[in-house]
Amino acid sequence: MKGLILKDLYNISHNAKSMFFILLFFAVVFLPSSGTQGYMFTCTLLCTMMIVTTFTFDEFSNWTPYALIMPVSRENLVAGKYIVLVIFSAAGTLFGLLAGLIGTRIAGNFVSVSGPADILPLGLTAIASLAVSTICGGMSIPLTFRFGPEKGRLLVLVSFFIPSIICYIVYRLLLILGIVLTDELIVLFLYCSPLLALVWNFAMYRISCAILSKKEF
């Protein structure tokens, strides 16, 4: 398992410089309007989507068929992707927090820096960003296993769209049941979001294992 994780981290390190400059560009564009919280959320999502790039490297090197002739199970291949996903998301959250705090302080000397997300504490924003990004990224993994990395890139939007639709349906059901989403209830839900992400990604893991088990190489 350790080797599977290190393989993806080593491969993605070649793109680290490009991602660094992209995140700096987004800092200049979004920090003045969205603040540290909004920028942290953006960084987390961008870094999370790098999980699809690891599939591109695997396909280019014909990695999966080679790995399966070694004592590596298909379940281990899938689990490795989900562990790497969490690492990417956590790295994006940490970078967004540090760069956001520094950038906001620098930009604050020249322009007014604020955003609608500033009403949330930094810790809660980090928790919510990590949970939301792993939910979206977790869905992109079975899609990429099923359709391949090229189509998987195009289907990344689906990874955002379906969880959003589910949240909207739940919201409408709560309204029908007469449950009002107060600020306290929303904050509680955000604090519980990591548990939701864990359950969601376990389901996506099982789906990914089922997809990979049916593929022939």
How would you portray this structure in words?
The two termini are 21 Å apart. The model has no long low-confidence stretch (mean pLDDT 82). The longest helix is centred in the middle third of the chain and has 34 residues. The protein is globular. Helix 2 crosses helix 6, helix 5 packs across helix 6 and helix 5 packs antiparallel against helix 8. It has 217 residues and is mainly α. Helices cover 83% and strands 0% of the residues. The protein has eight helices and no strands.
Order of helices and strands: HHHHHHHH
Q: What's the total count of β strands?
A: 0
Percent helix range: over 70%
Which secondary-structure class do the elements indicate? mainly alpha
Low-confidence stretches: none
Which range does the strand content fall in?
A: under 5%
Major sheet details: none
- Number of alpha- plus pi-helical segments: 8
**Average predicted local confidence, pLDDT:** 82
Query: What global shape is seen?
Result: globular
Q: What is the rounded distance between the termini?
A: 21 Å
Radius of gyration: 19 Å
List the SSEs and their pairings:
Elements: H1 2-12, H2 16-48, H3 50-60, H4 63-68, H5 74-107, H6 122-154, H7 156-176, H8 183-214
Helix pairs in contact: 1-5, 2-5, 2-6, 3-6, 5-6, 5-8, 6-7, 6-8
